[in-house]
Amino acid sequence: MAQIYTTQDLAQILAHEREACLRGDRLSLTASTTRFHPVVEPFVNAEGVQKFTAYCDFRDAVHDYQRKHQVSGLLWRKFTVKDVSLEYPEVDDHLIALPQDLEILAAHKTLVLKFWQQIAQGMETYCHQAKHIPHSPVNSPQIEIQSQRSEWAYLHKLEYPGALEITLQLGWGCPKEALYQKYWPISGCCFIHAVEPGRVPQSAYY
User: Fold this and answer.
1) Does residue 204 fall inside a structural domain?
2) Which residues span the domain enclosing 50?
3) Distance between CA 193 and CA 106 in Å, rounded?
4) Which of 14, 80, 108, 177 could lock 187 by a disulfide, CB 3.0 to 4.6 Å apart?
């Protein structure tokens, strides 16, 4: 029986393939720059397009493999801040989420939210939902309403001189599409930033 690759295997394979494409070891000779606007086409690096296309073609094949063999796109992440940790699932940056993966993410949403609330005690909170829209102060009841509308949650942190920022990402739909406004409202997310009193959020994920 042929070996079935694991999530970790596929993530490593894609990471190695991406590096090979960036080095130029892989090129898609059929890739063309003609799909770009005629004004910018002369400035498009043809070899760069070939590298990127080669990786995308390989990545799509891996995604097809995931679907065929039902290989999860989830990896378990250990998030540590203020000497406390939480392990929770996230979709690997280069893999896709299967329907059952979305169910697992949903099952861990409350756990992630409660952990964020614990470590964000005493901090000021701001909401950021769309590009080009400033952060706005948000209170606990508003965060709870946003959480109820969401299907999954991720954590991020940003440490810079003298300060710490802990961000709760609340999303719905496909995690891969949630960052892009063109998929709204099928997929989307908002970010709740917790910062120390007197600070303003510095991180941006859009």
Assistant:
1) no
2) 7-69
3) 21
4) 177
pLDDT digits (tens, 9 = 90+) for 84-120: 999 999 999 899 999 999 999 999 999 999 999 999 9
Q: What's residue 44's pLDDT?
A: 42
Does residue 62 sit in the same domain as residue 78? Answer: no
Q: What's the gap between Cα 95 and its chain centre?
A: 11
Angle subtended at Cα 98 by Cα 188 and Cα 171, rounded to the nearest 5 degrees = 20
**Residue 41 sits in the same domain as residue 89:** no
| Alpha helices for 24-98 (secondary structure H) | 46-69
Q: Do residues 138 and 148 touch, judged by C-beta distance below 8 A?
A: no
User: How many domains does the chain divide into?
Assistant: 2
Look at residue 62 and tell me whether its pLDDT is greater than 90: yes
pLDDT (0 to 100) of residue 22: 67
Does 149 score more than 70 pLDDT? yes
One domain, residues 12 and 105: no
Rounded to whole angstroms, the Cα distance separating 149 from 153 reads 11
Q: Are residues 78 and 61 in the same domain?
A: no
Q: How far is CA 100 from CA 7, 68, 109, 129, in A?
A: 14, 14, 15, 27
Would residue 123 count as lying in a domain? Answer: yes
- The pLDDT-based confidence of 45 (bands split at 50, 70, 90) is very low
Q: Sign (positive/negative) of CA torsion 49, 50, 53, 55?
A: negative
